[in-house]
Amino acid sequence: MNYPIKRPQPIQKSTSAANRGMDLEQAINDTNQYYIDNDIAYIYKKPIPIQVVKVDYAKRSAAKISEAYYKIPSTTDYNGIYRGRYVDFEAKETRSKTSFPLKNIHKHQVQHLDNVRRHGGISFLIVHFSLLNRSFLLDSGFVTQYYQRSDIGKKSITLAEFIENGHELKEAYVKRLDYLGVLDKYYFAKQ
Amino acid sequence: MNYPIKRPQPIQKSTSAANRGMDLEQAINDTNQYYIDNDIAYIYKKPIPIQVVKVDYAKRSAAKISEAYYKIPSTTDYNGIYRGRYVDFEAKETRSKTSFPLKNIHKHQVQHLDNVRRHGGISFLIVHFSLLNRSFLLDSGFVTQYYQRSDIGKKSITLAEFIENGHELKEAYVKRLDYLGVLDKYYFAKQ
Predict the structure, then answer these.
(1) Which domain, by its residues, includes B120?
(2) Which of A20, B116, B178, B187 could be joined to B88 by an S-S link, Cβ 3.0–4.6 Å?
(3) What is the CATH number of the domain that holds A53?
(4) A81 contacts B88? CB cut-off 8 A
(5) How far is residue B149's CA from residue B156's CA, in Å, rounded to a whole number?
(6) Which one of A38, A92, A119, A126 makes the best mutation probe of the B interface by having the most chain B beta carbons within 10 Å?
(7) Nearest Cα to Cα of residue A127 among A163, A156, A92
(8) What tens digit of pLDDT does each residue of A94-150 get?
Protein backbone atom coordinates (compact mmCIF):
# COMPACT_ATOMS: atom_id res chain seq x y z
CA MET A 1 0.00 0.00 0.00
CA ASN A 2 1.11 3.46 -0.74
CA TYR A 3 0.70 5.65 2.19
CA PRO A 4 0.68 9.35 1.63
CA ILE A 5 3.91 10.70 2.85
CA LYS A 6 3.71 13.47 5.28
CA ARG A 7 6.60 15.83 4.87
CA PRO A 8 7.80 17.46 8.03
CA GLN A 9 6.55 21.02 8.18
CA PRO A 10 9.34 23.56 8.38
CA ILE A 11 9.09 25.51 11.59
CA GLN A 12 7.89 28.97 10.77
CA LYS A 13 10.27 31.66 11.87
CA SER A 14 8.36 34.85 11.78
CA THR A 15 10.97 37.48 11.16
CA SER A 16 9.03 39.89 8.98
CA ALA A 17 5.93 41.71 10.13
CA ALA A 18 3.97 40.06 7.35
CA ASN A 19 4.00 36.75 9.17
CA ARG A 20 3.21 38.18 12.51
CA GLY A 21 -0.32 39.10 11.64
CA MET A 22 -2.12 42.28 12.41
CA ASP A 23 -1.51 44.53 15.39
CA LEU A 24 -5.16 45.23 16.19
CA GLU A 25 -4.65 48.45 18.09
CA GLN A 26 -2.39 49.87 15.41
CA ALA A 27 -4.81 48.84 12.67
CA ILE A 28 -7.71 50.58 14.41
CA ASN A 29 -5.65 53.68 15.14
CA ASP A 30 -4.56 53.87 11.50
CA THR A 31 -8.15 53.44 10.37
CA ASN A 32 -9.38 56.16 12.73
CA GLN A 33 -6.64 58.49 11.48
CA TYR A 34 -7.80 57.84 7.92
CA TYR A 35 -11.37 58.73 8.93
CA ILE A 36 -10.17 61.93 10.64
CA ASP A 37 -7.91 62.98 7.78
CA ASN A 38 -10.80 62.55 5.36
CA ASP A 39 -13.39 64.24 7.58
CA ILE A 40 -15.44 61.02 7.75
CA ALA A 41 -15.64 60.39 11.49
CA TYR A 42 -14.01 61.53 14.71
CA ILE A 43 -13.33 58.45 16.77
CA TYR A 44 -10.39 58.37 19.16
CA LYS A 45 -8.73 55.94 21.49
CA LYS A 46 -9.04 57.07 25.07
CA PRO A 47 -5.83 57.48 27.03
CA ILE A 48 -4.95 54.68 29.45
CA PRO A 49 -6.11 55.74 32.92
CA ILE A 50 -3.18 56.25 35.26
CA GLN A 51 -3.18 57.25 38.91
CA VAL A 52 -0.35 59.72 39.40
CA VAL A 53 1.13 59.61 42.90
CA LYS A 54 4.35 61.58 42.65
CA VAL A 55 5.50 64.27 40.24
CA ASP A 56 9.05 65.57 40.17
CA TYR A 57 9.26 69.22 39.18
CA ALA A 58 13.02 69.43 39.75
CA LYS A 59 13.98 69.62 36.12
CA ARG A 60 13.18 72.83 34.36
CA SER A 61 12.21 71.11 31.15
CA ALA A 62 9.16 69.09 32.05
CA ALA A 63 7.31 67.66 34.99
CA LYS A 64 8.44 64.06 35.43
CA ILE A 65 5.98 61.60 36.90
CA SER A 66 8.07 59.38 39.16
CA GLU A 67 5.37 57.22 40.71
CA ALA A 68 2.11 56.17 39.11
CA TYR A 69 -0.09 53.11 38.70
CA TYR A 70 -2.46 51.74 36.09
CA LYS A 71 -6.13 52.02 36.96
CA ILE A 72 -9.11 49.97 35.79
CA PRO A 73 -10.68 51.79 32.82
CA SER A 74 -14.21 53.09 33.57
CA THR A 75 -15.40 52.66 30.04
CA THR A 76 -14.15 51.35 26.72
CA ASP A 77 -11.13 52.09 24.57
CA TYR A 78 -12.74 53.94 21.66
CA ASN A 79 -15.51 56.44 21.19
CA GLY A 80 -16.56 59.28 18.94
CA ILE A 81 -19.01 60.46 16.32
CA TYR A 82 -20.01 59.15 12.89
CA ARG A 83 -22.88 60.42 10.73
CA GLY A 84 -24.33 62.21 13.74
CA ARG A 85 -24.36 59.08 15.87
CA TYR A 86 -22.43 58.30 19.01
CA VAL A 87 -20.11 55.32 18.45
CA ASP A 88 -18.44 53.37 21.25
CA PHE A 89 -16.49 50.14 21.22
CA GLU A 90 -13.89 47.92 22.81
CA ALA A 91 -11.28 45.97 20.82
CA LYS A 92 -9.70 42.72 21.94
CA GLU A 93 -7.35 40.11 20.58
CA THR A 94 -7.30 36.42 21.36
CA ARG A 95 -4.92 33.63 20.45
CA SER A 96 -7.67 31.08 20.76
CA LYS A 97 -8.74 29.53 17.45
CA THR A 98 -12.21 28.61 18.61
CA SER A 99 -13.64 31.20 20.99
CA PHE A 100 -13.18 34.54 22.73
CA PRO A 101 -12.85 34.10 26.52
CA LEU A 102 -15.14 36.51 28.33
CA LYS A 103 -12.66 37.06 31.14
CA ASN A 104 -10.86 39.34 28.66
CA ILE A 105 -13.53 41.99 29.04
CA HIS A 106 -14.54 43.74 32.29
CA LYS A 107 -18.11 43.42 33.47
CA HIS A 108 -18.51 47.21 33.68
CA GLN A 109 -17.31 47.52 30.08
CA VAL A 110 -20.08 45.16 28.97
CA GLN A 111 -22.49 47.26 31.04
CA HIS A 112 -21.16 50.46 29.47
CA LEU A 113 -21.65 49.16 25.92
CA ASP A 114 -25.16 48.14 26.88
CA ASN A 115 -25.92 51.58 28.37
CA VAL A 116 -24.78 53.26 25.17
CA ARG A 117 -27.01 51.07 22.99
CA ARG A 118 -30.03 51.61 25.25
CA HIS A 119 -29.49 55.37 24.91
CA GLY A 120 -29.42 55.34 21.13
CA GLY A 121 -25.73 54.98 20.41
CA ILE A 122 -23.93 52.40 18.30
CA SER A 123 -21.81 50.12 20.45
CA PHE A 124 -19.98 46.92 19.76
CA LEU A 125 -16.99 44.70 20.42
CA ILE A 126 -14.26 44.04 17.86
CA VAL A 127 -12.43 40.76 18.37
CA HIS A 128 -9.36 39.75 16.42
CA PHE A 129 -8.51 36.05 16.35
CA SER A 130 -4.79 36.53 15.83
CA LEU A 131 -3.87 32.95 14.93
CA LEU A 132 -6.68 32.80 12.37
CA ASN A 133 -6.12 36.40 11.27
CA ARG A 134 -9.87 37.04 11.28
CA SER A 135 -11.67 39.96 12.92
CA PHE A 136 -15.31 40.41 13.81
CA LEU A 137 -17.57 43.22 14.92
CA LEU A 138 -20.28 42.07 17.33
CA ASP A 139 -23.12 44.35 18.42
CA SER A 140 -23.37 45.07 22.14
CA GLY A 141 -26.80 43.42 22.24
CA PHE A 142 -25.16 40.08 21.54
CA VAL A 143 -22.23 40.87 23.82
CA THR A 144 -24.63 41.42 26.72
CA GLN A 145 -26.57 38.27 25.87
CA TYR A 146 -23.43 36.10 25.76
CA TYR A 147 -22.04 37.75 28.86
CA GLN A 148 -25.18 37.01 30.85
CA ARG A 149 -24.96 33.41 29.73
CA SER A 150 -21.47 33.27 31.29
CA ASP A 151 -23.09 33.44 34.73
CA ILE A 152 -24.58 30.04 34.10
CA GLY A 153 -21.54 28.26 32.74
CA LYS A 154 -20.35 29.15 29.27
CA LYS A 155 -17.48 31.63 29.66
CA SER A 156 -16.79 32.48 26.05
CA ILE A 157 -18.22 33.52 22.71
CA THR A 158 -17.49 30.89 20.08
CA LEU A 159 -16.07 31.63 16.64
CA ALA A 160 -19.23 30.11 15.19
CA GLU A 161 -21.28 32.70 17.09
CA PHE A 162 -19.14 35.53 15.75
CA ILE A 163 -19.66 34.16 12.25
CA GLU A 164 -23.40 33.83 12.78
CA ASN A 165 -24.22 37.06 14.61
CA GLY A 166 -21.20 39.31 13.99
CA HIS A 167 -19.80 40.96 10.90
CA GLU A 168 -16.38 40.00 9.63
CA LEU A 169 -13.96 42.89 9.08
CA LYS A 170 -11.55 42.44 6.19
CA GLU A 171 -8.15 44.03 6.46
CA ALA A 172 -7.27 46.38 3.64
CA TYR A 173 -4.38 48.58 2.71
CA VAL A 174 -5.54 52.17 3.25
CA LYS A 175 -8.56 51.80 5.46
CA ARG A 176 -6.87 49.07 7.46
CA LEU A 177 -9.98 47.77 9.21
CA ASP A 178 -12.96 49.61 7.77
CA TYR A 179 -15.50 49.04 10.54
CA LEU A 180 -17.56 52.06 9.48
CA GLY A 181 -18.38 50.19 6.29
CA VAL A 182 -20.13 47.63 8.49
CA LEU A 183 -21.98 50.41 10.30
CA ASP A 184 -23.21 51.83 6.97
CA LYS A 185 -24.48 48.45 5.92
CA TYR A 186 -26.01 47.13 9.13
CA TYR A 187 -26.80 50.10 11.37
CA PHE A 188 -27.63 53.01 9.08
CA ALA A 189 -29.38 50.92 6.44
CA LYS A 190 -32.07 50.06 9.00
CA GLN A 191 -32.99 53.68 9.51
CA MET B 1 -6.39 45.56 27.14
CA ASN B 2 -5.70 44.21 30.59
CA TYR B 3 -3.39 46.29 32.69
CA PRO B 4 -2.06 45.29 36.07
CA ILE B 5 -4.13 47.09 38.59
CA LYS B 6 -3.28 48.88 41.75
CA ARG B 7 -6.11 50.37 43.70
CA PRO B 8 -5.89 54.10 43.30
CA GLN B 9 -4.92 56.05 46.36
CA PRO B 10 -7.32 58.94 46.77
CA ILE B 11 -5.60 62.20 46.09
CA GLN B 12 -5.97 64.36 49.15
CA LYS B 13 -8.32 67.17 48.36
CA SER B 14 -8.38 70.44 50.19
CA THR B 15 -9.74 70.14 53.69
CA SER B 16 -12.08 73.07 53.49
CA ALA B 17 -13.38 73.42 49.97
CA ALA B 18 -16.31 75.52 51.12
CA ASN B 19 -14.54 78.83 51.13
CA ARG B 20 -12.68 78.41 47.92
CA GLY B 21 -15.68 78.41 45.66
CA MET B 22 -16.51 75.66 43.24
CA ASP B 23 -14.01 73.12 42.00
CA LEU B 24 -15.21 72.98 38.41
CA GLU B 25 -13.85 69.56 37.60
CA GLN B 26 -15.31 68.06 40.75
CA ALA B 27 -18.67 69.72 40.11
CA ILE B 28 -18.82 68.30 36.58
CA ASN B 29 -17.70 64.86 37.71
CA ASP B 30 -20.36 64.84 40.44
CA THR B 31 -22.98 65.94 37.93
CA ASN B 32 -21.95 63.24 35.46
CA GLN B 33 -22.08 60.65 38.22
CA TYR B 34 -25.61 61.79 39.04
CA TYR B 35 -26.58 61.39 35.37
CA ILE B 36 -25.03 57.92 35.27
CA ASP B 37 -26.60 56.78 38.55
CA ASN B 38 -30.00 57.89 37.29
CA ASP B 39 -29.57 56.41 33.80
CA ILE B 40 -29.91 59.88 32.23
CA ALA B 41 -26.67 60.21 30.27
CA TYR B 42 -23.29 58.51 29.97
CA ILE B 43 -20.70 61.25 29.82
CA TYR B 44 -17.22 60.65 31.20
CA LYS B 45 -14.03 62.57 31.72
CA LYS B 46 -11.27 61.18 29.59
CA PRO B 47 -8.11 60.12 31.39
CA ILE B 48 -5.19 62.53 31.20
CA PRO B 49 -2.87 61.32 28.45
CA ILE B 50 0.45 60.18 29.86
CA GLN B 51 3.51 58.89 28.04
CA VAL B 52 4.86 55.97 30.04
CA VAL B 53 8.63 55.55 29.73
CA LYS B 54 9.59 53.12 32.46
CA VAL B 55 7.62 50.51 34.37
CA ASP B 56 8.99 48.69 37.38
CA TYR B 57 7.68 45.14 37.76
CA ALA B 58 9.88 44.33 40.74
CA LYS B 59 7.15 44.34 43.35
CA ARG B 60 4.76 41.45 43.32
CA SER B 61 1.75 43.62 44.03
CA ALA B 62 1.51 45.88 41.02
CA ALA B 63 3.42 47.38 38.18
CA LYS B 64 4.82 50.72 39.25
CA ILE B 65 5.31 53.37 36.61
CA SER B 66 8.58 55.04 37.57
CA GLU B 67 9.02 57.43 34.67
CA ALA B 68 6.29 59.11 32.66
CA TYR B 69 5.36 62.49 31.23
CA TYR B 70 2.19 64.41 30.53
CA LYS B 71 1.20 64.65 26.87
CA ILE B 72 -0.91 67.26 25.09
CA PRO B 73 -4.49 65.95 24.87
CA SER B 74 -5.69 65.17 21.32
CA THR B 75 -9.27 66.07 22.04
CA THR B 76 -11.37 67.45 24.88
CA ASP B 77 -11.91 66.45 28.48
CA TYR B 78 -15.48 65.13 28.35
CA ASN B 79 -17.60 63.17 25.95
CA GLY B 80 -20.48 60.75 25.89
CA ILE B 81 -24.11 60.21 24.96
CA TYR B 82 -27.34 61.97 25.91
CA ARG B 83 -30.78 61.36 24.38
CA GLY B 84 -29.16 59.56 21.48
CA ARG B 85 -26.84 62.46 20.68
CA TYR B 86 -23.07 62.62 20.87
CA VAL B 87 -21.98 65.24 23.43
CA ASP B 88 -18.45 66.65 23.67
CA PHE B 89 -17.05 69.52 25.68
CA GLU B 90 -14.10 71.15 27.34
CA ALA B 91 -14.27 72.81 30.77
CA LYS B 92 -12.03 75.65 31.90
CA GLU B 93 -11.67 77.97 34.85
CA THR B 94 -10.39 81.50 34.82
CA ARG B 95 -9.61 83.95 37.59
CA SER B 96 -10.24 86.88 35.29
CA LYS B 97 -13.37 88.88 36.14
CA THR B 98 -13.89 90.24 32.66
CA SER B 99 -12.92 87.69 30.02
CA PHE B 100 -11.72 84.17 29.24
CA PRO B 101 -8.22 84.20 27.71
CA LEU B 102 -8.13 82.03 24.59
CA LYS B 103 -4.60 80.85 25.31
CA ASN B 104 -6.25 78.55 27.88
CA ILE B 105 -7.61 76.32 25.14
CA HIS B 106 -5.56 74.48 22.52
CA LYS B 107 -6.20 75.25 18.86
CA HIS B 108 -6.78 71.57 18.08
CA GLN B 109 -9.37 71.40 20.85
CA VAL B 110 -11.30 74.26 19.21
CA GLN B 111 -10.98 72.39 15.92
CA HIS B 112 -12.19 69.18 17.55
CA LEU B 113 -15.30 70.85 18.99
CA ASP B 114 -15.99 72.32 15.56
CA ASN B 115 -15.59 68.93 13.87
CA VAL B 116 -18.07 67.40 16.29
CA ARG B 117 -20.68 70.10 15.60
CA ARG B 118 -20.25 69.83 11.83
CA HIS B 119 -20.87 66.08 12.13
CA GLY B 120 -24.10 66.46 14.05
CA GLY B 121 -22.91 66.29 17.65
CA ILE B 122 -23.49 68.73 20.48
CA SER B 123 -20.24 70.44 21.46
CA PHE B 124 -19.47 73.36 23.68
CA LEU B 125 -17.14 75.00 26.15
CA ILE B 126 -17.93 75.44 29.84
CA VAL B 127 -16.11 78.33 31.48
CA HIS B 128 -16.16 79.01 35.20
CA PHE B 129 -15.24 82.52 36.30
CA SER B 130 -13.99 81.49 39.73
CA LEU B 131 -13.77 84.96 41.32
CA LEU B 132 -17.31 85.78 40.17
CA ASN B 133 -18.53 82.25 40.85
CA ARG B 134 -20.42 82.22 37.54
CA SER B 135 -20.33 79.49 34.90
CA PHE B 136 -21.37 79.55 31.26
CA LEU B 137 -21.93 77.05 28.50
CA LEU B 138 -20.96 78.38 25.07
CA ASP B 139 -21.73 76.51 21.86
CA SER B 140 -18.75 75.50 19.74
CA GLY B 141 -20.04 77.64 16.88
CA PHE B 142 -19.34 80.74 18.96
CA VAL B 143 -16.09 79.30 20.29
CA THR B 144 -14.81 78.86 16.73
CA GLN B 145 -15.98 82.34 15.77
CA TYR B 146 -14.25 83.99 18.73
CA TYR B 147 -11.17 81.87 18.25
CA GLN B 148 -10.81 82.90 14.60
CA ARG B 149 -11.12 86.50 15.69
CA SER B 150 -8.11 85.96 17.95
CA ASP B 151 -5.92 85.73 14.83
CA ILE B 152 -6.64 89.36 14.15
CA GLY B 153 -6.10 90.76 17.61
CA LYS B 154 -8.66 90.00 20.28
CA LYS B 155 -7.33 87.10 22.36
CA SER B 156 -10.23 86.45 24.66
CA ILE B 157 -13.98 85.98 24.98
CA THR B 158 -15.49 88.67 27.17
CA LEU B 159 -17.90 88.03 30.03
CA ALA B 160 -20.44 90.15 28.15
CA GLU B 161 -20.17 87.77 25.19
CA PHE B 162 -20.75 84.77 27.46
CA ILE B 163 -23.82 86.53 28.87
CA GLU B 164 -25.09 87.39 25.40
CA ASN B 165 -24.41 84.18 23.48
CA GLY B 166 -23.85 81.59 26.17
CA HIS B 167 -26.11 80.00 28.76
CA GLU B 168 -25.43 80.50 32.43
CA LEU B 169 -25.21 77.34 34.54
CA LYS B 170 -26.47 77.65 38.08
CA GLU B 171 -24.86 75.52 40.74
CA ALA B 172 -27.23 73.33 42.70
CA TYR B 173 -26.96 70.78 45.44
CA VAL B 174 -27.62 67.41 43.83
CA LYS B 175 -27.14 68.05 40.16
CA ARG B 176 -24.18 70.28 40.88
CA LEU B 177 -23.95 71.89 37.46
CA ASP B 178 -26.89 70.68 35.42
CA TYR B 179 -25.64 71.42 31.92
CA LEU B 180 -28.00 68.87 30.38
CA GLY B 181 -30.88 71.14 31.41
CA VAL B 182 -29.40 73.73 29.04
CA LEU B 183 -29.15 71.10 26.30
CA ASP B 184 -32.83 70.20 26.74
CA LYS B 185 -33.81 73.83 26.45
CA TYR B 186 -31.57 75.08 23.68
CA TYR B 187 -30.48 72.08 21.63
CA PHE B 188 -33.30 69.57 21.77
CA ALA B 189 -36.09 72.15 21.72
CA LYS B 190 -35.01 73.15 18.20
CA GLN B 191 -35.58 69.70 16.82
Answers:
(1) 21-188
(2) B116
(3) 3.40.1350.10
(4) yes
(5) 9
(6) A119
(7) A92
(8) 999 999 999 999 999 999 999 999 999 999 999 999 999 999 999 999 999 999 987
